[in-house]
Write a structure and sequence with these properties.
heterodimer; A: 516 residues; alpha/beta; six-stranded mixed β-sheet; 24% strand; globular; B: 351 residues; ABC transporter involved in vitamin B12 uptake, BtuC; two-stranded antiparallel sheet
Chain lengths: 516, 351
């Protein structure tokens, strides 16, 4: 079948939309990748980049819009279909099989076969070594993938994608865990693929890399296409301005509240391989925003403070008194409350009633002679649910039938019923529609006004900037900036969050092989 | 620039080989099994040197061995098949009824019918698990009772007796070739084929991948549903084969034929190093686990251990195997975490 002469684009997406229930992840995604081009796709967390990638990869199916690959309209029902068509994707989180060998992870389903269709392991190992040689890394193809460092896992993903011989290669933040040398080698391979006439999409938060590798850049914001330009014709400042470009103050009103004494005092908190030397304080009536990119270690810090996870060094104090490490009950007794990111999975018993959910943390105080009655639960839950305006027909309605915003309120009500002094809240408005977002924000502001200390983790920059009295920025497990409300601009936070721990032009340590 | 070398590199080839051997679950189990046989024989020579000692040593585990092979294929995909004991009972009874209805039926054909019947019962499990999106534990717990119920309803108060079965078939139950029982040979051939498939065929490796990380398997584009179905069909077929073998070996099929065998098969697999959460382990290990389990059960009465303690020993072995796996994996994770931190620190110090 002759290809249309005009079709120089490998990939063409126009006005693609995708919603999950009532939450719109992608309003209008557009992206055109030419042959022999490296195309950067940039935007904040939650701008819709990953959703777009997953639609191209066949993980999700679009709700509407045009999707053309190699000049033809396509619909990929599965990842297998997109792979067969010639699309290779390196996902943000490596998706390896820990029990299989490194070589098998690369060639699974395409292993070199001898006779009679027996997997020829020596040939497979040799092919893997050839790939690693091309990437300039030393990795034993025979070892199990379990326990490999994120960098090594990422290298396997890259080798896998290259070995597919695809016409389109999408890399979703492939360099986040790589050292400078490894990044350079990856770029050399990427340029080689570009010169062979393939199309590449490169998603990164590191602008130096975007400018070093890419020729075209598309900016996305809030699930929408913003602009496409030649990299040569633009600048970092321009791109950052397009990424954040929206009036912050209108959306997220934090009413000023009197700020009191230090409630939470964290000093030198470290956990090997997760975060390092994190110190922070939160005062009564203050909202402290913890910003950073996905994977920077924000949730991990919160979980350690609340006693869910262990930490290796440092201390956590409430009102000057030390809180036992790795002990959630001690944290609750000290006056902490924690609303996790994954509220369906960790914060709510979705099948249970609203009242039971709200009363679950304080049930010890409610029980009469060891028995807990529904009436007592409803009595305790009533005032809080009313104050938070949980919109449910009745308190005995099951939590799973409610909207994301109302579920969040139930989780909040549950913790507020313990009368905490400190609220740690992770992604307070993730998966909540815009209208309800404002309600959650008003509520948080209100709680701070009553003297509650709030530590808020958020991937949404406008939310952090609008709500927080102080912004702490975490990058690769380390605090890189502390900004007062007045000084916190989107650009500053972005720069602190994308600061590379290692400048790209100085070679870091040689890739270290980890042996189990 | 510094290059890190892994700590503890006093490696001589011998030491390396020795460490590798000690780490291999299969060899560890084999050593324990040999010890059990040796100790028991030392206490009572009859155990190995009686007229049927050698034959029984090989013959008794062969039925559980077949079941353990099938169970392993399912457990590797992060599922479990609890219905196989009932499948054994049902197919054993089917075998008897076939011979009662057609006494001249070729023995080979009966084995094939048993295999196919078991496969169909396994397919039912697989379809329910793969399309019902209900955990296999629940589905196969249900079919365990359903299959047993069908068996009991069908059999009523009848039972299959040795007199109903042709002599050629019964002889097969104890027949030996070069001192090796025929049933053992069948089991070992099946074991070898399954072992080859799981290690050297693409489909076999995909079973491991699915158990290792089901979400990643879907993202990778593997045909998860089809592979899981295959594993359940295999498990059912092995149980069907074991059912025919049970009829040949014991000659009678009563209502409790195959009872509790599914738990023994899971136990054998776990003892043999098959991870209950899928992704790792071999049928060789599971087969050795089955051999060890059956042999210990036979050895304990011989050396005068009471009934209660026999059950206790089996339980202790299963728990011991799991604790061992857990300890090894924690140690491995610690090592890796330490090495990763060291590497990070080195990277920081360098930049």
């Amino acid at each position: 079948m002759p290809e249309p002469a005009a079709a120089t684009a490998v990939l063409e997406l126009r006005d693609v939309t995708k919603a999950f229930g009532s939450v719109v992840a992608l309003r209008s995604g557009s992206l055109t990748v030419e042959r022999g081009s490296v195309h950067a796709l940039v935007g904040e967390n939650g701008a819709g980049k990953s959703t777009l990638v997953k639609i191209v990869a066949g993980v999700y199916q679009r709700d509407a819009g045009t999707f053309r690959f190699l000049g033809q309209d396509v619909d990929f029902a599965s990842t297998a279909a997109s792979k067969a068509a010639g699309i290779a994707v390196i996902y943000q989180e490596p998706t390896l099989f820990p029990d299989l060998s490194v070589a098998e992870n690369i060639f699974l389903g395409r292993q070199t076969l001898g006779r009679p269709r027996r997997i020829d392991r020596p040939a497979m190992y040799a092919a893997a070594e050839a790939l690693f040689a091309r990437l300039g890394v030393r990795l034993d193809p025979r070892r199990q993938a379990r326990g490999l460092s994120i960098a090594d896992q990422q290298i396997i993903e890259i080798a896998k994608a290259i070995s597919l011989d695809a016409s389109l290669l999408i890399m979703d933040e492939p360099t986040a865990a790589l050292s400078g040398v490894e990044v350079e080698r990856l770029f050399a391979v990427a340029r080689g693929l570009r010169d062979e006439g393939r199309g590449l999409v490169f998603i990164s938060h590191r602008f130096d890399e975007v400018f070093a590798l890419c020729d075209t850049v598309t900016v996305m914001r809030d699930g929408q296409y913003v602009s496409t330009e030649r990299v040569a014709d633009t600048s970092v400042d321009q791109i950052v301005a397009r990424m954040v470009g929206r009036e912050v103050s209108e959306l997220f009103p934090k009413t000023p509240a009197p700020i009191g004494d230090v409630v939470l005092d964290v000093r030198g908190l470290s956990a090997a391989g997760v975060f390092r030397d994190v110190s922070l304080t939160v005062r009564a009536g203050e909202i402290v925003g913890l910003a950073g990119l996905v994977g920077a270690g924000r949730s991990e810090v919160a979980r350690a403070v609340f006693g869910v996870d262990r930490y290796d060094a440092g201390s956590v104090r409430m009102f000057g008194r030390p809180v036992r490490a790795h002990d959630v009950r001690a944290a609750i007794r000290a006056g902490m409350a924690f609303v996790p990111e994954d509220r369906r999975g960790q914060g709510l018993t979705t099948q249970a009633s609203v009242a039971r959910n709200v009363a679950s943390v304080i049930r010890r105080g409610l029980a009469r002679g060891g028995l807990l009655t529904t009436a007592a639960e409803n009595r305790a839950a009533g005032p809080w649910s009313a104050r938070l305006e949980v919109k449910t027909a009745a308190l005995d309605m099951a939590a799973e039938t409610m909207s994301g915003g109302n579920q969040q309120k139930v989780v909040l009500a549950k913790w507020l019923a313990t009368e905490p002094k400190l609220l740690i809240i992770d992604e307070p408005t993730r998966g909540i529609d815009v209208g309800t977002k404002a309600e959650v924000h008003r509520l948080l502001s209100d709680l701070a006004g009553r003297g509650l200390a709030i530590l808020m983790i958020s991937s949404e920059l406008p939310e952090v900037l609008g709500m927080a009295d102080r912004v702490l920025v975490l990058c690769e497990g380390e605090l890189t900036a502390e900004l007062d409300r007045a000084d916190a601009t989107p650009e500053r936070v972005m720069h602190a969050a994308t600061r590379s721990a290692r400048p790209i032009d100085t070679p870091a340590a040689a890739p270290v092989e980890v042996t189990a | 620039m510094t290059t890190l070398t892994a700590p503890g590199t006093l490696s001589s080839p011998l030491r390396h080989t020795l460490a590798g051997l000690l780490r291999s679950r299969e060899i560890a189990i084999a050593v324990v099994a040999v010890l059990v046989v040796a100790v028991t024989t030392a206490k009572n020579h009859q155990f190995l040197f009686a007229a049927n000692g050698w034959r029984d040593l090989l013959l008794t585990p062969s039925i559980l061995l077949l079941l353990a092979v099938g169970e392993t294929a399912v457990v590797i995909t992060r599922s479990v098949d609890l219905s196989i004991g009932s499948v054994v009972g049902l197919t054993a009874y089917l075998t008897g009824r076939l011979f009662i209805a057609h006494p001249g039926l070729p023995v080979g054909l009966v084995f094939l019918i048993g295999l196919a019947a078991g496969g169909v019962l396994g397919l039912v499990n697989g379809v329910l698990v793969a399309f019902g999106r209900v955990p296999a534990l629940v589905i196969t717990l249900g079919t365990m009772y359903v299959y047993r119920g069908i068996f009991l309803t069908w059999a009523g108060s009848n039972r299959v007796n040795a007199s109903d079965l042709p002599d050629s078939f019964l002889r097969l139950g104890t027949q030996q070739v070069l001192t090796i029982p025929v049933l053992t040979i069948i089991a070992v051939v099946v074991l070898a084929v399954a072992g080859y498939y799981l290690y050297s065929a693409r489909g076999g490796r995909e079973l491991y991948a699915i158990g290792s990380d089901p979400d990643a398997a879907r993202l990778y584009g593997l045909r998860v549903t089809r592979r899981v179905l295959t594993a359940f069909v295999l498990s059912g077929a092995m149980a069907g084969l074991a059912g025919v073998a049970t009829a040949a070996r014991y000659g009678t099929v009563s209502a409790n034929a195959g009872l509790n065998l599914e738990l023994q098969a899971v136990g054998a697999a776990v003892i043999g190093g098959v991870a209950i959460f899928g992704g790792s382990g071999t049928v060789w290990g599971a087969a050795l686990g089955a051999f060890l389990l059956v042999t210990i059960n036979r050895a304990l009465p011989v050396i005068g251990v009471q009934d209660f303690w026999q059950q206790f020993v089996v339980g202790a072995m299963i728990i011991g195997a799991i604790v061992l796996d857990r300890v090894l994996s924690i140690r491995r994770d610690r090592k890796i975490a330490a090495a990763t931190s060291a590497a990070r620190a080195a990277a920081r110090g360098n930049s």
